[in-house]
Amino acid sequence: MPSAIGAFVLARVLPLDISIEPNSDGLPGIAQLKTLVGAAMTVGLILAVLGLIVSAIVWTTGSHSSNPHLAGRGKVGVLVALGAAVICGAAVTLVNFFWNIGQSV
Q1: Which of 38, 39, 51, 53 has the CB geometry, 3.0–4.6 Å to 81, for a possible disulfide?
Q2: Are 56 and 78 in contact (CB under 8 A)?
Q3: How many H-runs (helices) and E-runs (strands) does the chain carry?
């Protein structure tokens, strides 16, 4: 019983209204970090386009040379490049979506 009483007293003493929000002014360099993340997203999208082009060439070469293994690798490369582009493009939206879900828990 003492542990139940202690938990009840502890629950009555601790504040129940704790609210912490993201603070963009808390650390120096946040603006530069946002710029770096934006640049990394741009590089990721450029590399996804390059991967898509190279994979399409590999797919085409494999199809026209009757090489099913090469054609299959090109198809997988196209899917991977498209998936990378979707993730790079939707990264901010996905993080915000899951942040909002986490705040509602």
Answers
A1: 51
A2: yes
A3: 3, 0
